[in-house]
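ESCALATION

Customer reports they have been waiting on this structure for their group meeting. Please prioritize. Original submission:
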Amino acid sequence: MSAASTALFGLLGHPVAHSRSPLIHTAALEALGEDAVYLAFDVAPADLADALRGLRALGVRGFNVTVPHKVAILPLLDVVDAAAVRIGAVNTVVVEGGRLVGTNTDAPGLARALVDSHVSLTGVAPLVIGAGGAARASVVGLDDAGCAPGVVAARRIEEASEVARLAPGWRAIGLGDASALEAAASGSGLLVQATSATMTSAAVAFAAALPIAALPADAAVVDLVYAPLETTVLAAARARGLRAIDGLGMLVWQAALALERWTGRAPPIAPMRAAARPPTR
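Update from on-call: job pushed to the front of the queue and completed.
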């Protein structure tokens, strides 16, 4: 490997020590035979602009962006494409002719992950739980994939309404409105858990408050959390005999679509998926 020709890719976030992105992308770059490295850079919010200047000076070919920079980076880029503008967040930056071009692969990544799991999306009315960046990407990705207008449920209905406005026909309800939540679930073939609640000490109570029991027997439940893989929401779905899909698929596909943008090559999904999976103890 020649240092002069080695391509540089990376991840900007704070913190990033826990991220599996370097493992996923390194496995992919090795499988493709690319002379490249992928590094994680822990960048504090106050240092984001300086980090971008440094990456530009180093000739980076592309990089990913994770919390807390997905929104803050927008005004610092040369171009932000329509998909990222619609979602209001960037997770991937491509260097094109020296310009930093922001895009978002989270939205199509979710759709590809669900198709991989044999979930039919056409005409399905999803129920999306949450109002943050993951929920925004979910609504846009599912709408683009041909889903019917669905429902966004969040603790604050004002925030849910803001997310629902991203796609025509979607509506918002409050998580505290049990009857509305149950009605939305009964007409939905797909529940997307797009909050960090299943990573917290309140995970059990959060899962119990969701209308898993009201979902149709052929519904699928996806939790975008991937650590832990078996969340309280997925456990409840499996207990009902529903299809339960963890967050690794979206993690892998958003990375794969970013890699495709950077290299112009078809991403090697199998080694990326193997690298994403946490080691068994």
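Sent to customer with the following note: The two ends are 34 Å apart (CA to CA).
Escalation resolved.
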